[in-house]
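Input record (one chain):
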Amino acid sequence: MYNIMEFIFNNIIWIIIILIIIYIIKEYKYLKDRINNIHKQFSETLDAYLMKKVQEAKQIVEMLLIEYNEEDTIKTELARLLIILQKGETGSINEKVETSNALNKYKLSKQLDLEKYPKLSELEYIGTFTEEDINSLDNGVKLARIAYNKEALLYNEKASSFLMQYLTKIVKLNPNYVIFNQTNNITQNQSIETLQDKEELLHTQTNLNLQEGFPERKEEQIPLKRDYTNNIIKPSINIDSVEKKE
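The corresponding structure, as predicted from the sequence alone:
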């Protein structure tokens, strides 16, 4: 026992270095697993879906450029939008997700008059995630989007730690992955889903309590006693006796 303690004491620095190396290898493997899952979730469903939406938006923008070619203000606005769309076609995963977020929250400049330029209203429908697509489970978009965000959040949390910040720079990994922003429709649906999950959990806990012999809690109700005579409530103090005392 003494020899073991002496060995550890004499080689404490090397032991610490070895433990740090083991920790770094373990964390690096974790990050690589998250990256593989992110690429898998994105490439299987989201990549093709976003590409289709970006191309549809690009066609609308190009059509409007032809329509309002002589309007400098509109041309500037549409040119800015085209730059965003180009990143969504040929960019990295982060650039494609950023493009999606930008399109979903895109708003026309207040300087543009829709009554004067009515066709610009088509730009209000260039978002990448429609309510129908998000609520439908047939196309897999909703599930893939949730799975991607989950893996990206796990990666970002690990990559933001002290040692991993330096490791990602050394091995040239992404410092973080962009998360799909929530739209109003998605927020509402997720709120409903969260409420349903809580109700199911409460119901499950109640059933478990009943199965294990724990009685279900019931609120005690204090009965109210009133003395009625001919539907008139009797006062608790004798009024005549009070008048005599006075």
